[in-house]
Amino acid sequence: MAAICERINESLIPDGSRFDVAVDRLYEHEEPTAAEQLLHAYQRLLEVVDEEIATIEQQTQLAPSCRKGCAHCCYYPIVITPLEAKLIIAYVDVLPERDKERVAGHLQQYFRQYRSQLRELREQSYEEADDKRLYKSLHLPCPMLDTQSGSCLAYAVRPIPCRTYLNYSDPRVCGDELLPKESFSYAFLGEYYMQALHEYIQALLMDGEDDETLGIVYPDDSLEMEPLPLLLEKWLLSARG
Ligand code: SF4
């Protein structure tokens, strides 16, 4: 794995042009509202991340051992921006009514069940390696994880940390360690993706859209990063008024 990592880092890191092409196509795409247009862009750019990973896997003949039902990494700290959390919520909001109710019920139960772990989480920064270990010791699943089936309730819009962390060996190592050497992180794709998302949002704003029509606070929502459980908790509290 170490040799393959070296090869990827030395010669297979893409130049970002696939994201540029995707943004150009997004300008031609129309949805009924600006908020839906932004949600579509978010999903599309996440797909581009998957496509880049698939290309590298093809070049290196790697096949991930990650499978539905294996959710070890859903107990890792997933740290994202409020912008991404709002887009995940926007995705849930346009699900068919039954699915939406299921997710809402699941989240209510989650925040009741994990109240004490969340309190502990609020007291940590989770930026340093030790904090990450501490996070893992909380045994706190991601709010979007259906712990019964081990599946993600927002799989189509799972954020960058979930997409870019892949295991190419025995998946059990992810349960035993925080960042096992057998895994590989394509986190470098996150920069292209975020740059492309910014470019698209700025184009929408130039076109006359605003925070209200987009359903975000820009750029503020993209400046800070927090663990996903805390972002969703804040959203749930604000939705309740
Ligand atoms: S968003 Fe989905 S894939 Fe990512 S940690 Fe949460 S449950 Fe797992």
Q: Can you characterise this structure?
A:
The protein is mainly α. It has one domain (2-240). The chain is 59% helix and 6% strand. The protein contains twelve helices and six strands. It has helices at 2-12, 17-28, 34-60, 82-93, 97-113, 115-122, 129-137, 160-164, 173-176, 188-206, 211-214, 228-240; strands at 79-80, 145-146, 151-152, 165-167, 183-185, 226-227. The chain has a two-stranded antiparallel ribbon with strand order 1-6. Strands 2-3 form a two-stranded antiparallel sheet. β2 and β3 form a beta hairpin. The chain is globular and about 50 Å long. The termini are far apart. The mean pLDDT is 92. Iron/sulfur cluster (SF4) binds next to loops.
